[in-house]
Amino acid sequence: MGKVKKAKQPGKDSGLPAMPKAVKQTIGKVKSKTSKAKAPTSVAKAVAEGPQSRRAFVAAVSAARAEGGKVLKSLLGPRPKMNGARMMQEIEEARAHAEQVADVAHKKGRSRKKKLSAHSRGVLAAFNASPQLPSLPQRG
User: Fold this and answer.
1) Does any domain span residue 53?
2) Range of the domain at 96
3) Which of 17, 28, 37, 116 makes an SS bond possible with 120, Cβ 3.0 to 4.6 Å?
4) pLDDT tens digit string along 99-135?
């Protein structure tokens, strides 16, 4: 057995063409320095995402305080424990939401019924036809 030769690397000495250097390409995304960052939902997220995120979070919190603090609870506070009263409240909210969705769907309605294909019409006609008694072939 012979010696195992080392694989040649592309470059000057190997006789192989040199590999091109990697080029960083842009994908066409427009970066705007003036765009406002969305407010994160927690303090830890705001701190982790950087100064713009922190500023947006502080702005959201101050706006929530100005509105009376209702939004602030949803941003910072933990969810209350589930108990019977809270469960009943959530069920009622879900029912109300389902009724709203049903009303919207009912008002919108359907624009028109689609015409069935010839095959589907034949299948439905055969299904809805009255059953016939089997008959034996007649000798003629």
Assistant:
1) yes
2) 37-102
3) 116
4) 999 888 888 766 667 889 999 999 999 999 998 888 8
Handedness of CA 46, 47, 50, 55 (dihedral sign): positive
> How far is the C-alpha of 140 from the C-alpha of 133, rounded, in Å?
21
Interatomic CA distance for residues 70 and 64, integer angstroms: 7
Which CA distances in Å does 135 have to 39, 132, 138, 140?
78, 9, 9, 15
43 belongs to a structural domain: yes
Residue 47 maps to a domain:
yes
Q: Is residue 112 part of a domain?
A: no
Bigger pLDDT: 59 or 50?
Answer: 59
**Cα 40 to the chain's mean position, in Å?**
19
Amino acid at 71: V
